C-alpha cells in the first residue's frame, strides 16, 4: 500500500497552509469576513459605531456640535471610518497571507526556529486542492473586502464633496 504525500509532508502541522487557512477561517476576528452579507455589515457597523467613542470627542473639539453640526458629523464619521479601515486592512492582510501560502507551489517553513528555514514543494494533488480553496473560498472574501474599501472610498469622496458646500 502506497503512503499518501500528505503523510510525508515535512512541514509542521501549524505551518501547513491548509491548517493556517482553517485556523484563520475559525478565528474570532477573521471569521467576520466569511459571514453572510447581513452579519458582515453588522460587524462593520459595530466597529464604526464603537469608533465614535473616540471620534466624537475629537470632532467636537474641532467643530462644536451646537454650532457646526454638519462639520461635526462629517469629521466624526471620517475619524470613525479610519478605525474601520484599520480593521479591514488587518482582515485583508491576513487573508492575503493565507491566499499566498495556499497558491505558492513551495511552502517555506521553520523546523524549530527562525534560523533553520526549509522549503517543501507541494505535490500536484495538494497544490491543486490549495488553489481550488483559493479560487472558491479565499478570493470571494478578498473581493468582498475590496468592495468594502471601494465603498468607503466613495463615502469619503461624497463626504469631501458635501464638506465643500457646508
From TrEMBL:
Cross-referenced Pfam families: CGLD27-like (PF06799)
InterPro entries according to UniProt: CGLD27-like
Transmembrane helix among keywords: yes
Top-level lineage group: Bacteria
Transmembrane intervals: 45-63, 69-93, 148-165
Protein keywords: Membrane, Transmembrane, Transmembrane helix
Protein name: CGLD27 family protein
Organism: Floridaenema fluviatile BLCC-F154
Amino acid at each position: 500500500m502506497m503512503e499518501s504525500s500528505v503523510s510525508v509532508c515535512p512541514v509542521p502541522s501549524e505551518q501547513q497552509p491548509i491548517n493556517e487557512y482553517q485556523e484563520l477561517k475559525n478565528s474570532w476576528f477573521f471569521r467576520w469576513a466569511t459571514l453572510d452579507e447581513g452579519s458582515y455589515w453588522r460587524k462593520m457597523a459595530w466597529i464604526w459605531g464603537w469608533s465614535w467613542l473616540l471620534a466624537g470627542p475629537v470632532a467636537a473639539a474641532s467643530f462644536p456640535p451646537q454650532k457646526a453640526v454638519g462639520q461635526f458629523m462629517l469629521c466624526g464619521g471620517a475619524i470613525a471610518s479610519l478605525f474601520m479601515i484599520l480593521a479591514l486592512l488587518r482582515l485583508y492582510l491576513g487573508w492575503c497571507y493565507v491566499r499566498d501560502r495556499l497558491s505558492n507551489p513551495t511552502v517555506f517553513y521553520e523546523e524549530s526556529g527562525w534560523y533553520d528555514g526549509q522549503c517543501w514543494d507541494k505535490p500536484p494533488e495538494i497544490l491543486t486542492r490549495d488553489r481550488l480553496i483559493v479560487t472558491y473560498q479565499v478570493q470571494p472574501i478578498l473581493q468582498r473586502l475590496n468592495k468594502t474599501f471601494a465603498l468607503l472610498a466613495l463615502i469619503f469622496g461624497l463626504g469631501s464633496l458635501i464638506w465643500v458646500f457646508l
